[in-house]
TrEMBL record, chains A, B:
Belongs to the PlsX family. Its main location: cytoplasm. It is found in: Cytoplasm. Pathway: Lipid metabolism; phospholipid metabolism. This is Phosphate acyltransferase. Homodimer. Probably interacts with PlsY. It comes from Aquamicrobium soli. HAMAP family: PlsX.
Length: 355, 355
């Protein structure tokens, strides 16, 4: 049995999308159980429409809901201990749930997750990992925006975290890993990327096939299973890809309505176009996974529909099923056992890093 | 009359693509003159096939050609004073040409351009600007990879350089400008982006409509005419967009050949698809413009066909015609006259920056 805690009040559409999504998942994964946090008078009636779902769910009333435009500090001040978002995360901490899913605002969810679950022992900072559709299937890209900047040790941590995720989500035994870099040689800067590359090569972990540097266009090609970068570049890469995909979809619509022949062609090929549209949902369908915390938190896209939210729930389910946290902890232990200096350096770094 | 110096040996296809491209441009821009640098025995026979072009061109023999895989330092060592790339740049320095176009390797072209032309008086570092197709037309994005990292002063310089380019290429009197950033608030880091924003707002230049921060997805939307960022993020954004566009094209091909109906639809809509393909050439068609140097250098994409190289030549032509350098110099003077402190800070920064 896998128990998932749900923040029913998050996202642009709240329980209207969340509850139907859970109903879908409940029929597909019979061993799933839900603890649903939200306002009883709103969530209760929607839940009642899905008797099967209601049978595997417990609804817990929360007076407070974090708003989509709350700043992280506001959300912590007003929503800690009592909001549906906090309660859903806390269920993971208390062990009443195995993973938490929310479509609420990213900054608030990250702030609360860090505060409640804390980072893993040897990890300075959590990362947000996205599942990126590629020409070869899917890749994990991280960090896509948890923190700006990362030193070499943090990039190595991200590589280990991302590897654990790729193993537990894609079922690849030894995922290929690349560090995102720019192609021009002999230029200054980004020493941390080069240092991280050296450390990964030297560590030579059994669970990770480190392949060196990759460039922006390698993400879409699917050159590696895990693409590692710091949060600023990662966020810009993700958003730029989203923008380009939307641009392409718009061009396509325009092109296909310009002439009678094109319109006729469009009608004939409609199912192909629909398939195409699904494929292009870069970063929208599953949202982000928070890695490096003592618990699994999945952030569904705020604008996700029921299919999108269901995908996020199933992603959380799969990571629990495939023992994501155990895998990550084993890899971290192995890395630090082999690199005691790195571990101590990292700890001292962490102290100066915290405020 | 506008005189363009051409490195005929650059690019994956060399003079086979370069010379036919020049022939096209010569018919479209009757007041253009070319100084073509390359190996006479190779370029001469191709030029002879285009008598009209030969009439407006001077071919100057260069024994040495920079290779596409030469490192910048190698290229400088082996190609300085004598290669077709160097000679084409030097023609701009000597005033025998108004702009230089090369499809040769980016690192080598930038190293030689910096060495030969030097940066403008108040500019620390040159930037590479890309013309980015958007839903609203085109935008200038810089820096897409000249240097990794940029402080606030350098970002302000890039904003002024990009504004000059948008004015002279798009003919917009007061281009809108945005600084690329990530959306999450209340996170550490990227102080330089915030500082640059403050400086641009305070400077309140007549030629620039500064609009604040933009995110990755705003590039494709065309939210602003000029997107400013440092070279690492800029390069990753550009390459990621290229990757996504190529991914989309591949998905489209697959989708349109899967069923008989889809294939029939494709045939009917073929011209619409061809138009679409052209639109998606993010960063390929025109290549990059080197800004911040005492002279105009345009880098055409190495894999460009004759149309692509012709577009790069016409871009150089347009920037000369519309007095790009004068506009930039006037804006820089205005900015530094109003911000004498910024100017002196910048100069001292430049000293510590240089090796």
């Amino acid at each position: 049995m896998i128990r998932i805690s749900i923040d029913a009040m998050g996202g642009d559409h709240g329980p209207d999308v969340v509850v139907p999504a859970l109903a879908t998942v409940a029929t597909r994964r019979p061993d799933i159980r839900f603890i649903v946090y939200g306002r009883e008078e709103i969530v209760g009636p929607i839940l009642a429409r899905f008797p099967k779902l209601a049978g595997v769910s417990e609804l817990i009333h929360c007076e407070v809901a974090v708003r989509m435009d709350d700043k992280p500090s506001q959300a912590l001040r007003n929503g800690r201990w009592k909001s549906s978002m906090w309660k859903a995360i806390e269920a993971v901490k208390n062990g009443t749930a195995d993973a938490c899913i929310s479509a609420g605002n990213t900054g608030a969810l990250m702030a609360m997750s860090k505060f409640c679950l804390r980072t893993m022992a040897t990890i300075d900072r959590p990362a947000i990992a996205a599942i990126w559709p590629t020409l070869r299937g899917e890749s994990v890209v991280l960090d896509v925006g948890a923190t700006i900047g990362a030193d070499a040790h943090q990039l190595v941590d991200f590589a280990i975290l991302g590897t654990g995720m790729a193993r537990s989500v894609f079922g690849v035994e030894r995922p290929t890993v690349g560090l995102l870099n720019v192609g021009v040689e002999e230029i200054k800067g980004q020493e941390e990327v080069k240092d991280a590359g050296r450390m990964l090569r030297e560590a030579n972990l059994a669970s990770m096939d480190y392949r060196g540097f990759v460039e922006g266009n390698d993400i879409g090609k699917g050159t590696v299973d895990v693409v590692v970068t710091e949060g600023f570049s990662g966020n810009i890469a993700l958003k730029t890809a989203e923008g380009t995909a939307r641009q392409f979809a718009q061009y396509l619509r325009e092109a296909m309505s310009r002439t009678l022949m094109a319109r006729l062609g469009y009608i004939l090929a409609r199912s192909a176009f629909n398939r195409l549209r699904e494929k292009l949902d870069v970063g929208r369908s599953n949202g982000g996974v928070f890695l490096g915390l003592n618990g699994i938190v999945v952030k569904s896209h705020g604008g996700a529909d029921a299919n999108g939210f269901a995908a996020a729930v199933e992603l959380g389910y799969d990571m629990v099923r495939n023992r994501l946290l155990d895998r990550i902890e084993a890899d971290l232990d192995l890395f630090h056992a082999r690199n005691p200096k790195a571990a101590s350096l990292q700890r001292s770094g962490a102290e100066t890093e915290e405020e």
